[in-house]
Amino acid sequence: MLLNCSWIDAAKFLTGASAVGSLAIPIILRHANMIETGAILMCFHRASLEDDW
């Protein structure tokens, strides 16, 4: 039972890291002037269009 719980915890951690990273990475790149604001907006707009499940 302990092994099963550790896999669930690992999956929750990876899901959370992915969610935070998908928001944080474009913001960090914009802060470093590596991408423009329009690129961030297009990325977030496209992600919201694909959210139909």
Question: How would you summarize the topology of this molecule?
Answer:
Elements: H1 2-31, H2 37-49
Strand content: under 5%
As a whole number of angstroms, the C-alpha radius of gyration is 16 Å
Span between N and C termini? 31 Å
| Coarse structural class | mainly alpha
**Stretches with pLDDT under 50, minimum 5 residues:** none
Number of strands: 0
Major sheet description: none
Reading the helices and strands in chain order gives: HH
The average pLDDT score comes to 84
State the helical fraction. over 70%
Shape: elongated
**Number of helical stretches of at least 4 residues:** 2
What is the total domain count? 1
What does this entry look like structurally?
The radius of gyration is 16 Å and the shape is elongated. The protein has one domain. It has helices at residues 2-31, 37-49. Helices cover 81% and strands 0% of the residues. The longest helix has 30 residues, at 2-31. The protein is mainly α.
Question: Which tags fit this structure?
Answer:
mainly alpha, transmembrane, 2 helices, transmembrane helix, single chain, 53 residues
Question: What's the gist of this structure?
Answer:
One of its GO terms (cellular component) is endosome. This protein has helices spanning 2-31, 37-49.
